Each structure stands twice: as structure tokens, then as C-alpha cells.
Amino acid sequence: MSSRRILVVDDDDGIRGFVQLALEDEGFEVLAARDGREALTTLGRQPVDLILLDMRMPGMDGWRFAEAYAAAPGVHAPIVVMTAARDEATLVEEVGAAAVIAKPFDLQDLIDIATHYAGR
Amino acid sequence: MSVHVAAPAASAPVAGRQEAPGLGTGSLSWVAGVVSCLCGAMILIMPHRFQTPAYAAMQPYLFGWGVAFLLLGLAFTGLVVLQPGRYLQALAHVLVGALWLMLAWGFAGVGALTGVLSWGLFGIGIILAPLLSGLHWRRSGAAPHSLLSLLAGLVAAALGGSIVVLWLTDGLNTPVYAATRQIMPLLGLAFLATGLALLLVNLFFATHPRLSVAANVAVGLAYLAYVILQSIPAGALTGITLFGLMGLSLVARPWPRVRAWRGDLYSLRARLVFVSVAVTTVSLVGMVVLISNVALQDMTVASLHEIERTREHSFVYLLLALAGASMAEIVMAGWLARPLANLSEAIDSLAAGRASVPIIKSSIAEVAHLTQAFEDMRQRLLQRTAEGEELLAAQEELARDAEQRAAALDAIFNSMTEAVIVYDKDRNFTQLNGAAREMLGVAPGATVAEATEYAQRYTWPEHGDGRRLEHQERPVVRALTRGEVVVTERFVLRAGERRTWAAMSAAPIRDRDGIIGAVAVLRDVSDQMRANQELERLLRLEQEARSQTEAALHLRDEFLSIAAHELKTPVTSLRGYAQLLRRRFDKTSELEPHRVLEALAQVDKQTRRLARLAEQLLDVSRLESGRLELQPEEVRLPDMVGEMMDEFRHAYPERSFVLQSEPCPPLMVDMLRIQQVLINLVDNAAKFSAADTPIEICVAPVDATGAALTVRDYGIGVSSDDRPHIFERYYQGRGNGYRGGMGIGLYISREIVQMHGGAIDHQAMEGGGSRFIVNLPCGPQPSAVQPGEGAA
Q1: Distance of CA A20 to the CA centre of its chain
Q2: How far away is chain A from the Cα of B503, in angstroms, using its nearest Cα?
Q3: Are B456 and B424 in contact, with CB atoms under 8 Å apart?
Q4: Edge-to-edge strands of the sheet including A79-83?
Q5: Residues B413, B414, B416, B420: is their CA dihedral positive or negative?
Q6: Closest-CA residue in chain B for A60?
Q7: CA B170: distance to chain centroid?
Q8: Going by C-beta distance under 8 Å and a sequence separation of 6 or more, which residues neighbour residue B556?
Q9: What integer pLDDT is reported at residue B128 of this predicted model?
Q10: pLDDT digits over B304-361, tens only?
Q11: Interface test with B, best of A9, A11, A13, A15 (most B CBs within 10 A)
Q12: B94 Cα distance to chain centroid
């Protein structure tokens, strides 16, 4: 288990697709989920080092996911919120996020944040 | 003679109280009384004078005649002054009249015609006087004033007539008329003429003052002439007395001064004078007679003549003495009666309101006592009057003060614009001003009682919401029962159908015993309340408008944030793929072709997505500004939908689509816009339903005038909360979480359908899912085109 594992949760196929490709290029093992429920299922199977979370999703959205995840037992990976909304500070507080990265983000910023929180 | 002058003079104006109602007998009583007295005195004092043949009848009883005449005469005179009872008066009249008739009877025996007629007629008159005195002449206004005057006229006429007859029949040749035979006819004619004249005047012209005076005076002069020309020369003493006094009294009638004495006849003074004169007369006559008879007993025949002369002298002295005594008695009586008269005057003036007449002190004990008592009474009365006047003045001052205050209060009360009502203890009005009448709707002319009744029946206070005030809540009741002072509380005053907002104050009115009423002041504040209500309404409207604006702004903010989110998502992908390719190229200086193709496919997909979002935003903007224009063309709906199915399957490769299509009439619509509507509906169906459920699309004609396009899914449906709003601009379903999109698809769809004259509707389906139905009319089509196209 040398490589670090990252979970990407986003309902948009495009975003999910390129984030996964970019992070795999950097050597991370990347898991993907369409919404909160899928993410929880994935996390139930295997722990991750970082969760990249979109907030507005159909089904279980980012807020409810964060709540459920926080309530779940075990060690918790940091959450980095990816959002197109403007009120970043609020989001950090609301979901107990480690950081926020605003869409559309720079790919290098995403990789830096992932490296910082997931480690290498 | 003075007493005898005074007597007829006093009697002349005719007599007192009896005169006014009927025939006056007072003068007759006076004259007859005095004549009788004088005759009696003469008979007693000078009996020798009555030894002539004319008095033959009375000679045997001369002393008796004298006494009878004197006493009856005095009594008769007394009738006038003393005014005894009716029966006594009648008796006196009968006695005197009988005496005079006896004398006439005596004259008849010697043929003395004038004596018979005069004494006889007067005698009859005296007897009848009490009966005649009550007589009222039928022809009112022509009644004779005096029985004396009437009898004098009658006697004169009768005498004149008889003398003329005697003269014509040579009947005057008797010794009685020996001395005056020559002149008798003239006297007879004069008597006849004046006597008839006086009778006529008395019977028919009694009220004519000048005629009456002239006739009386003429007869009087005739009598006096007879006395001078006949009786004196003949030595007929009775004739001289009768005719002389009769004549004098008739002549004296019109003297005004005499009339003024009339009221005095009934005074204390007159009575005192009469009584003393009568007593004096009787005493003197008695003395003279007594002395004469004593002297006579030792007299010789020679000295008899001397005595007779002395007797005649003594008669004259008697008269003089009587006159003197009378004067003294008048003065004495006046002195005695004066304090009483003065007292009487003082009482009169006091009764008339003048207290200033001084009271003469009298030495007579009774009078002094009386005057002192009166004086005390008068002083007390004066004192009380003064006190009373002071009190009256003070009262008047108070009354004026009160009046002024009342007037000022009245003026204030009635000029107030506030309605003022004063109540008594039982809540009845005691006063209300014009403003109150107007506010209560009381008729202007109604009394206070009517106003009370009206107000209690038809007016009451209400709360603003139309509830009647409870009895105990009413301000006036609170003031009356609890003594509360109510200050400007607002109520609705109901007067029949009219509602007036009134600011009402009420306060109790107290006296020392407690609450005796209340006063209420009402001000019409309807305008103010209306203004307040209007202000509140405007405020509410303004708040609504503001909250709507705020909601709209909020909605727009939210929309913008959502729109930004929606726009950023594809941009993020675009940027991400672009940077990803660049990074790989930088690392390895080459790109694997499948990676590039994959990225390009994403770029294509995301740019189309972006374009669609931009198009939607533009549509909203166009719709809002009314710039969205349709470009209708003939469209065959089944064909159009059939062609779009590939597109849907391509866009949603994992979904199964079911198309049910029937032939439809061609529609004149903007095809691109209708396609946009269908895409919207299919996108929604895909978004809100599970991937393994089918999406059913149906095209069907509607009554040959249009077509219906239906999209049905088996998804989550629309919650009942959301259902009314799903076609609103920016509205996103709240109940089912985030599904992406900007909340404008259905809005744009509805606008487009409505612009075509159609309708879009949503149905919640049993077993879940939604069905959207778009009804489109055929639209305006050239009639020539339709059949041709239909045939093709």
C-alpha cells in the first residue's frame, strides 16, 4: 500500500473524469462516486486518505454526506470541498472541511492540495 | 243761622252713598230735618207767633207740636250723618212724613192752599223716600239725581198751578193772601214754569249738567222770591223756613266747593259735630223755654208783650249761640279727630308704599296708644323692608352673576365642535349641544327627553371590530357607577347604520352627596381613523411590494448563483481536460491519441452544454423583454418527434424510450422552439427518474384542430408543494434535492407553448412519475396549403 488513495465525489462525469485521470497521473489511487451515498458505500469497502467533495449533487448531497461520514466510526480522512459557490468559509465550517477549492480550478492547485492532504 | 247755612250746604251735593246707585234722598233728609228742627224751635220759643188763623189746627197742642218737630227734626238730620239701620230709617221717615202731613191737614182746615200742597207733597215724598231711594230709572242715563230736586219741582209746579187756578177763579181773596194778592199771580206763573221745567229736566235730562243746574237754580230762586214776597210779609214762619231752606239748597246745588265736602259727611268729625250741635240745640231750646215759662207766671198783661219780644230776641240769640257753639264744636271735633285722620292718612300712605308721613302725637290716651302701636309697627315694617331690600339686592346680584355665567357656559357649550352630553344619575340626558345632536343623529328640534329616548334605542358604542361594548365597559357607565375618569378612548359610535369613530372622554359630576351625573365629550375622529387605516393599508402594500421585490431579488440572486454554478461546471471540465492534456504533453512531449480523443469528446460535450445554458439564459432575457419571436412553419409533429428520437437515445444511451405516434394535422409552429420544449421535457424526465425506467413520448391529434405532445416518466414525480410553482421562472423543486439545472426550462417551455396559443400542463400519475402534456393548435394556415399538403 505505497500509493495514497483519494475519493472523488462529483455528479458531473466530466469533472469526475479529468480529476481521476490527473490524480492517477500523479500516482494516486483514485476512487470515484456520483453522490454521497455511493461515496459512503465506497468508503465502507476501503478507507481513503482524502475526499474531494462536490456539494450540489442529486441524491445525497455534500452536506448530508459530510454529516453521515462524520457520524460513522473509525478514522476520518480530511475533506476538501470542490465548489462553484462563492461562500467558501461557510462551507469549510458547515462540513468540517480541511480546505476548499473553487471551480473552475487550476489543475496544479488540485494536485498540490491532494499532495498536501493525502501525502505521498 | 250759620249752622243752618252749613247744614243745607253740606246736604246740597246730595248725599253720599245712596246717590250713586239710585235716587238720592240725602238732600231731602237734610232739608226736611233742618226745617223740622227750626219749626220746632220756633214753635217752642215763639208760641205767640203761631196764634194766627193759619195755625189754628195746632194751637191747642202747640208745645207738643214744637217738641215733636224739634226732636223728629234732629233725629231726621241724624239719619244722614249716623246712618242707622234700614228699619230705623224707615220709621223716622214715616214719623216725620206723618208730622208734615198733619201740618198740611191743619192748613187744609183754614184753606191755606200753598201750605197744604207744599207740606203735603213733601210729607208724602218723605214717607216714600226709603222706597224710592232704591229705585232705578228705566231709561238709564236720564235718572234724576235727587229726590229733593224732583219733589221741589213737583211742589213748585203744583203750587204754581193752584195759584194760577185760584187767581183765575178769584180764590185768592182769602185773608191769607190779603197782603200779597197783587203779586201772587206772577209768583204762581213763575212756580208753574220753573217747576214744570225742573220736572222735565229731572225726568228726561237729568244727566245734562247745565240744564240741571239752571232748572234747580231757577226753582230755588222762585222759592226764595215767594219767601220774600209772600211768606215774610204774611208772617208765615213755617213757610219761610220750608221755602227758604228749600230755595237755598236748590241754589247751592251747583257750588263746587260744596261737592268737595261730601266725603266728610261720614267722618268722625261730622258725627261729633252733629251730636254736639244736636245736644246744644236741645239744651238751649229747653233752657229758653224753661226760663220763659218761669218768667211768664208773674207777668202782667202789659209785660206779656214785653216777654214775647224777649222771646223773639232770645230765638235770635239762640241761633247766634248755636252758630258760635257749632263753630267751636267743629274746631274741637277737628282737633279730636285730627290725630285719627292723620293716622289714617299715614296708614294709607304706608299701604301705598310711602312711609314718610309724620304722625301727630295725640294727648288722647287711646289715640296715643294707637299711634304708638302704629309707629312701632311702622318702624318694624320699615326695618324689615330695608332688610328685605338688602336681601333682594344681594339676590339680584347673585342672580345676575349666575345668569352671566350660565350665558357664557351656554355660549361655550353650543359653539364647541366636540359633542358634549350631560347625563343625570339614571343616564338620561340633561343637556346636549348641537355637535352631540349631529353625532347621534338626533333631529334638531327634538327635546332632551326625546333625544335620550332616541339615543338609548338607536345608538351604542362598538369596538373597532364591530363588537358592542358591554354595558360595564361604556365610558359613561364607568363614570357613573365607579366614578372613573375616562380619557379619550376610541370607539365606534353606531347611530343606526352610521358608524362614527369617536374619541370619548367621560367624567362623573359630584355634589356633596356623591355622583349625581356625568359629562361625556365625544370628538369625531373618523377622518383621522380613516387616514390611519389608509396609511396602514399603504404601509402593508408597500411592505408586500418590498417583500415581493426582496423575494424577486433573492430569487434572482439565487438564480444567478445557480446559473454561475451551472456555467462553472462545464467550464471546470473544459479547463481540467485542457490542463490535463497540457501536463501530459509537458511530461512526455507526446500525447496518446485515445486520450486526446476522449478529452475532445468531453470538450465537445461541455461546450454544447455551455451553449445550451447560454441559449436558455438568452431565452429568459428575450422573454422578459418580449423580444422572443416565433418563426412559424408547417410542421408535421410525428415526423419531427420521430427524427428527434435518435438524438435522445444518443444523449441518454442508457435510457429506453417509447414512442407512440398517431397521424396529426400539420401545425404552423416554430419548429426549433417546439423541439426545444420537447428536449426540455425529456431532459427533465431523464433527470427525475431512475435510469432503468422508460421515458414515454406520445404524439396524438386533438379534435382535428391541434395535436398533443406527451412526455411521461416513472420517476419521483412532483411534490404537491412544488406543483403550483413548477412553471414559474427560476423555480426549482424543493422536495427532491438537487438535480442540477437553472429552474428555467419549464418556464421557457410554457412561454413558448403559450405564444403558440397552446397550453402545457402537468399530471401526477398513479404509481409515481409525471406526465407533461403540451397541447398545440394547428395555428393560422393558408387554407389552400393545408389540403394540398395533407394530400401529399
Answers
A1: 11
A2: 56
A3: no
A4: A29-33, A5-9, A50-54, A79-83, A99-102
A5: positive
A6: B737
A7: 93
A8: B730
A9: 85
A10: 777 777 777 777 887 888 788 778 877 777 777 777 777 777 778 877 777 667 777 7
A11: A15
A12: 69
pLDDT computed for residue B535 by the predictor: 92
Distance separating alpha carbons of residues B287 and B281, to the nearest angstrom: 10
> Which of B571, B577, B739 is opposite residue A18, by nearest beta carbon?
B577
Q: How close, in Å, is residue A73 to chain B by CA atoms?
A: 26
| C-alpha cell recorded at residue B476 | 359613561
> Are residues B220 and B251 in contact, defined by beta-carbon separation less than 8 angstroms?
yes
In the block, residue with C-alpha cell 261730622: B270
Residue in B572, B598, B599 closest to A104 by CB: B572
| DSSP type of residue B146 | B
Q: Check A15 against B576: CB less than 8 A apart.
A: yes
A-chain CB neighbours of B572 within 8 Å are 12, 14-15, 84, 103-105
The DSSP element (H or E) to which B730 belongs, if any, is none
Contact B666, B792 (CB under 8 A): no
What's the Cα-to-Cα distance from B502 to each of B439, B462, B509, B522, B559, rounded to whole Å?
9, 10, 21, 6, 52
**d(Cα B637, Cα B359) in Å, to the nearest integer?**
146
Strand B459-462 versus strand B695-702 pairing type: unpaired
Structure letter (DSSP) for residue B227: I
Task: Using alpha carbons only, give the angle B517, B520, B526 rounded to the nearest 5 degrees.
Answer: 160
The model carries a pTM of: 0.45
pLDDT of residue B309: 78
B310 CB-contact burial (10 Å; exposed 0-12 / middle 13-18 / buried 19+): middle
Task: Give the residue carrying C-alpha cell 496518446.
Answer: B592
What pLDDT score does B322 carry?
Answer: 79
Burial zone of B350 (CB within 10 Å; 0-12 exposed, 13-18 middle, 19+ buried) = middle
Chain B residues whose C-beta is within 8 A of a chain A C-beta are 561, 564-565, 568-577, 579-580, 583-584, 587, 595, 598-599, 602, 605-606, 687, 737-740
Amino acid at position B589, single letter:
S
For B492, the grid coordinates are: 365606534
Exposure class string for B550-582: b at 16+ Cβ within 10 A, else e: eeeeeeeeebeebbbbbbbbbbbbbbbbebbbe
- For residue A47, the distance in angstroms to the closest alpha carbon of chain B comes to 26
Q: Can you tell me which residue has the cell 287711646?
A: B366
> What are the pLDDT digits (tens) for B530-545?
898 899 999 999 999 9
